[in-house]
Amino acid sequence: MVISTTTLIVTMAASPVCSSSPDKYRSQFLSHDEYIELRNSEDKHLHDELASIRCSINNVKRELKADIKELRDNVTTQNQRLGRLEDQTQRLEDQTQRLEDQTQRLEDQTQRLEAEVRQSQAYMRNKGLKNPTLPIRPVVVYRPGHGILEPEPLRFPRNADDFYSLRDPQTDRHRSMLAYLAVFYDVQLRSAGHLPEEESNSDDSDDDEIVLEHPDLVVEKLEDILGLNEDKIIKFKERALQTASRAPSKPIKRSQISWPEAGPIPGPRRQKLELRVTSGQEAYFYDPERPKSVSSEGLTNAHVGWGTRSTPSSQRARLQWSPKVARVSEPPNLEPERPKSASKSTEAESIDTDNDTHVFTNSPER
């Protein structure tokens, strides 16, 4: 900014200047040189201020440019990140869609397999059906987008008699049931070649009318679908009629039972109680100081129980009382045992062996 220096024209006040105070107003006026010097100092001061302001503005501009550049770089980086995130999001959406499609296919396959299993179970159950009064198990169907469908219970035949009565539907219920089953199980008579040529080529004929006009063909197709076997049912009815036509046999009384003449009436064989010595009760019948005989060695694992009579009564052993049993049952003597001479012990053992009769040993026949 350039300030031009002009001559300042100072008009004096209209009031007259008093001669008594000439120095009072002389200080209010500047000379031309003083005015120029004052203006130059002020111009310099203004120039310095403007230069500092201009420098500050330039600094602010540079900072703003740097900030704007940094902001643009950040925005560009964020845009790139957003672009990558959008790509990742798109890939995730594609993967999610593929997973949903795979899950849907797995669900469809699972439902299809479940439908096939249930169809096989119902088919085998109905195939073995013989009694016409027993209920028929409904066969389910699978349709994509709808899943597993079951027929309505009120529009499904209760048993085989009700099903085969659809060959000649006489009531509105049977006609409605036949048409419903043909639609539910998708019975196609035209494509199967069961209809005459003029009926299969006619476009004006309604499917329901075709079903009602040929109920025997529809029942035959439904029989194959449900797994029914009419021959088994017919044979079952024939056997039932034959059984019903026979006279019921009277029950045989016990007095009418004839036994063989030779010999008495056989009765239940009773087991005889046979006492045998167990290993825990061996001390009551044997003296521990006495050596065991050969005949008593086999009674180590003997026990008391029921047994059949294997030997004659004359050859079986007898339980005989021995005085040494009482001595065994008595509490042992606390006095120390005195050593016996070898001759006395041998003599006593020989006497015991000769005179005593052991339990369950065969006594010599006399």
From TrEMBL:
Extent of the signal sequence: 1-20
Bias (Polar residues) ranges: 308-317
UniProt keywords, alphabetically: Coiled coil, Signal
Stretches of the chain forming a coiled coil according to its record: 61-123
Superkingdom classification of source: Eukaryota
Region of interest (Disordered), ranges: 244-271, 286-366
Protein name: Wac domain-containing protein
Lineage of origin: Eukaryota, Fungi, Dikarya, Ascomycota, Pezizomycotina
